[in-house]
Amino acid sequence: MPLDLKLDATKDLAPQIADAIRDSIISGDLRVDQRLPSESELAEKFNVSRPTIREALKRLAAQNLIRTLRGATGGAFVNRLSFQEAQGQQITTSTLLLSMNAISFETACEARYALERACLALSAERRLPDHLATMRAEIHRQGQPGLSDESFCDSDVAFHRALVDGAGNPVLSYQLAGAVEAMQPLMNMITFSARDRARIIGIHTGIADALEERDVAKAASALDQLAAYTVTLAHDATANRPAKT
Fold first, then answer.
1. Which long-range contacts (CB under 8 A, 24 or more apart) does 156-161 make?
2. Domain boundaries, the chain
3. CA angle (171 as vertex; 100, 116 as ends), nearest 5
4. CB 184 within 8 A of CB 157
5. Fold of the domain spanning 13-78
6. How many CA atoms lie within 13 A of 200 on its CB side?
7. How much is the pLDDT for 135?
8. Which residues of the chain have pLDDT under 50?
9. What pLDDT score does 13 carry?
10. Predicted model pTM
11. Domain range 83-239, CATH architecture
């Protein structure tokens, strides 16, 4: 394992070591399920203390790049990172970027629907009965009397998640996790008080019907309706918001 790195003593050492190990994993110098050198071996290699190595390993574990096992045959091992495991970080990062950088609602909405629209053709071609069943189940759930706003929002996200997953492309599902599961809840927070559930359910039904019929144009038209309605809701919610005194 090369891990050739000259540490910058003026900066925090643990992140530099974690980055070096991560780069070795990405490059293939460290392979999936391979055992990393022991803490003492890494400390000697990088000429740092064992607590510094432990901190670096904690950073890698937090990114799901390594796993730690106890016992005589234990140690730190390279993980096989899956798209599903990485989605949580993608969602968290997208949520933080949106909230910290004051992205306008229109900008977020434009990105979110443009990305989802890119999935429609593949989803119409590849969607499985399970994807359609999930979408139908969520449409039914959305129409239940007494459904809370929070539960409606959760169902809304699940509906669009099924649309994206129907494309049968794990890379797209990973990339769109931030769009659907980060942007959508934020949009719901802004628009939930003004939206017409029946109208949204009708549009969702149109999307599901179009995907079942494998009609991409019809699905795109319904999604465009939803995008336009979402922007209108946001404008209405902003206009009706009490002025700050």
1. 156/184, 156/188, 156/200, 157/181, 157/184, 157/185, 157/188, 158/134, 159/134, 159/135, 159/204, 160/116, 160/184
2. 13-78, 83-239
3. 65
4. yes
5. Arc Repressor Mutant, subunit A (1.10.10)
6. 25
7. 98
8. 245
9. 93
10. 0.68
11. Up-down Bundle (1.20)
